Amino acid sequence: MSQHFAVRMDVALPPDMDPAERAALLAREKAYSQQWQRSGHWPHIWRCVGEYANLSVFAVESNAQLHEILWGLPLFPYMTMTITPLAAHPSDIALDAPAP
């Protein structure tokens, strides 16, 4: 059974970072995040308008798996994160949907 987490990631790259290094880092970040998105463990990612930040939802098997995913992010050393465990809400209409 999956555990769900909302994770806000704020990025602060050094302003004097070499442009080629920055481009390579961002390419690695994109490839890594898309791998986890394709696996189903990172089902949602949204940009926070006007900020170098995103809000993502993770569906993982354990706290340890979430830790592994987040620490593996190439941008991790430049991020500040806020992690919120999620639980089903009793007013969610999806909970009332009949089983297929």
From TrEMBL:
GO MF term (any one): muconolactone delta-isomerase activity
One Pfam assignment: MIase
Protein EC: 5.3.3.4
Enzymatic class: isomerase
InterPro entries recorded: MLI_dom, Muconolactone_d_Isoase
Entry keywords, A to Z: Isomerase
Domain Muconolactone isomerase: 5-92
NCBIfam families: muco_delta (TIGR03221)
Name this polypeptide is given: Muconolactone Delta-isomerase
